[in-house]
Fold this sequence. Notes:
The protein is mainly α.
Amino acid sequence: MKPWLRWDPGGDTVLAVASDIAMWAIYFANSHIGTDHAIARLVFFVILGTLFLDVLFPAWYVLRVRREPLSELGITTNRWLLALVTSAVLCLILFPGFKQAAAARPDLNVIPHLIYNGIILWEPFFVFSWLQLRFERAFGIIPGILLAAMGITAYHIGTFPISGVVAMFVFGIIDSSAFRISRNLLSMFPFTWALASGIGTLQGGLAFGWNLVVLYSVILAIQVVAIVMMAKTTACCETVA
């Protein structure tokens, strides 16, 4: 059992904080790039941000640099049933809020919006698998939860309205606490995040269609394949050693 409170920051902590600052810069810049600069947004936000910074870099650092198992990224079969039950409970809680937010957008195509928010591995992976577990290692369970909530809130500052930022922090605490119950990413991804992010993006004035579903399906496939390959390489190296 890890301590509720501790003080042991290290290189992981520095990288976690630096990556969150970098994500704020990318998120902020992307929101201020005109819609006529599609290539710049693709390269800057999608490839540099959501593909590399938020998933491939943390996975590479944990799996290849530190040579730790996938469980240190919340990817594990341990407590999978508890994670699914947690996700089901959260979805039941979140659904009325999503229904209300969707009703305020009569132009919303609900199905692609939900699918898009359910396949964006980058956000739950970055917030929970990366930030929260690094902060927990450095400061303990309670600070890990609070700092993860602050982390997801931080990179929305200057992009979302103040009310949305405040709501993001509240939901961040709830989601981080729920993730910590099982320490399994399945509690957040994909079902919980489809609704949680579905609400958050609508509150931020964003709605997504099939074009982004296709794009992020490709991004997700690349991320999954890369993580599997890095995990296998790490396992092979440990076997040889």
